[in-house]
């Protein structure tokens, strides 16, 4: 049985340069594509995560939430960051419901705890229960409580990577991890796409990666590649693709060489 984890990047579903601005047309296209995929492959299990884009990242930067909270203002900021992220997740869910996709929003703040920004524990039971009744868990980058600094932010990429490792350990599914964004893939210093990242060129890729062009408190492309590299070392194919191309996400889900970058640590 196949389990595909899909990240819908914040740059794809929102305008990251305009606070609180969703890309409705993009979301509708993605929902339609995923709905068709599900109808044609009824045994396929999906977990979808949406990035925070111009919703969560704006408030997270304002309150420096990733570094914890001490003051009353910072504690209020922690709550506001969660609400901003939740508002986008609800918007995504509504569009997916209109496409007859049975998504269920599941906030990571209710599942994960960190210790000085490092994951201490995550309870995935609500996600497992959703899959068991053929619903689609819809998760997102969120604030989480931290045993040392009060709270921090757990990115969608990190959460999906942890999910991939969790389900891999069960040996029940063939897993694929996909990040669809508003970019052609992972770029080198000349703006050309790395078609594949393997042991042979990983060090070169790392030197080519820079920060995000927009507000991004969770590390941008460099952090994404690092997270996915760890997952790919288990033998899981990880794709970073252009989500703007109609049908490209479908190709990635079906393993049919989409436009983008394949991260495959187990290959030369």
Please describe what this structure looks like.
This protein is α/β, with parallel strands linked by helices. The chain has one domain: Acetylglutamate kinase-like (Carbamate kinase). The chain contains nine helices and twelve strands. The strands form two sheets. Strands 3-6-2-1-9-11-12-10 form an eight-stranded mixed beta sheet, sandwiched between helices. Strands 5-4-7-8 form a four-stranded mixed beta sheet. It is globular and about 50 Å long. The chain starts with a strand and ends in a 5-residue tail after the last strand. The model has no long low-confidence stretch (mean pLDDT 93).
Keywords:
268 residues, 22% strand, 12 strands, eight-stranded mixed β-sheet, Carbamate kinase, alpha/beta, four-stranded mixed β-sheet, single chain
Question: In DSSP terms, counting alpha (H) and pi (I) runs of 4 or more, how many helices?
Answer: 9
Overall mean pLDDT:
93
**Main β-sheet description:** 8 strands, mixed
- For this structure, the quaternary state is single chain
Helix content: 40-55%
Low-confidence stretches: none
Highest-level CATH class = Alpha Beta
CA-to-CA gap between the ends? Answer: 27 Å
Please give the order of strands in the largest beta sheet. 3-6-2-1-9-11-12-10
CATH homologous superfamily (4th level) name:
Acetylglutamate kinase-like
CATH architecture: 3-Layer(aba) Sandwich
Q: Tell me the strand percentage band.
A: 15-25%
């Amino acid at each position: 049985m196949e389990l595909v984890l899909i990240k819908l990047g914040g740059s794809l579903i929102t305008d990251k340069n305009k606070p609180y601005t969703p890309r409705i047309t993009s979301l509708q296209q993605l929902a339609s594509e995923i709905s068709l995929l599900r109808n044609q492959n009824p045994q396929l299990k999906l977990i979808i995560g949406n990035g925070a884009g111009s919703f969560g990242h704006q408030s997270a930067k304002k309150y420096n939430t990733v570094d914890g909270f001490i003051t009353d203002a910072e504690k209020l900021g922690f709550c506001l960051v969660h609400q901003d992220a939740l508002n986008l997740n609800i918007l995504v869910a509504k569009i997916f419901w209109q496409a007859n996709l049975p998504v269920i929003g599941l906030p990571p703040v209710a599942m994960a705890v960190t210790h000085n920004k490092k994951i201490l524990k995550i309870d995935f039971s609500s996600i497992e229960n959703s899959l068991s009744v053929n619903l689609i868990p819809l998760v997102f980058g969120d604030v989480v409580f931290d045993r040392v600094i009060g709270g921090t932010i757990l990115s969608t990429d990190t959460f999906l990577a942890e999910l991939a490792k969790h389900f891999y350990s069960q040996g029940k599914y063939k897993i694929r991890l996909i990040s669809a964004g508003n970019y052609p893939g992972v770029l080198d210093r000349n703006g050309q796409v790395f078609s594949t990242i393997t042991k042979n060129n990983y060090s070169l890729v790392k030197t080519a990666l820079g920060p995000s062009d927009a507000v991004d408190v969770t590390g941008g492309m460099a952090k994404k590649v690092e997270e996915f590299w760890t997952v790919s070392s288990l033998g899981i194919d990880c794709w970073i693709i252009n989500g703007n191309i109609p049908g490209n996400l479908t190709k990635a889900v079906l393993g049919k060489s989409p436009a983008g970058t394949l991260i495959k640590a187990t290959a030369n």
